[in-house]
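Hey, does this match?
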Amino acid sequence: MKELDLLKKDWQKIDNHFEQVSENEIYKMIHKRSSSIVKWIFIISILEFVVLNSLSYLMPNEKTSESPTVELVISVLDYLSYGVALFFMYLFYRNYRSITVTSNTKKLMECILNTRKTVRYYIIFNLMLVFVVSVVVFFNEFQTESANTDGGKMFFICLLMLFFIAILIGVVWLFYQLIYGILLKKLNRNYVELRKIDL
C-alpha cells in the first residue's frame, strides 16, 4: 500500500513537471508573437509617417486661405502633427523594447496593455486632428462663400461640408481599424492566453 502511494506521488511530480514545461513553452511562443506584433506597429507607424509626409510634399504648395489667421492655424496643426507622430513612434519603440526584454508573465501582460493604450491614443489623436483640420478648412470656405451666397444655399453648403467631414473621419477610422485593429486583436488574444497561464 505504501509503495502504491509513493508511485502516485511520483506520477504527480512528473505530471507537474510536464505542465510547467508546457506553460513555459506557451509563454515563449506568446512572448515571441507579441514582440513581433509590437515591432510591426512601430514599423507601420514609421511607414505611415514617411508616406503621408512624402505625399504632402509632392502636392502643389498653394495657400489654403487668404486669411493669415487660418494659414497660421494650419501651420501650427502641421507642426503639431509632426511632433505628436514622432512622440508616438518613440512610445511604440519603447513598448517594443519593453516587450523584448521582459521575462515574466505579469510584465508581458502589462506591456501588452500599455501598447494597446498607446495605439488607441494614437488613433484618437489622428481622428481629432482630421476633425480640427476639416473644421478649419470648412470655416475658411464658409467665410469665402457666405459673402456671395444666399441663406438657403449656404445652409445646403454647410450640410454638405458636415457630411464630407463625417465621411472623411469615417474613412480615416476604417483605415486605422484595418491596419492597427488587426494587430490589436492579435495582441488581445495573446493577453487572454497569458491570463490563463497566470491563473
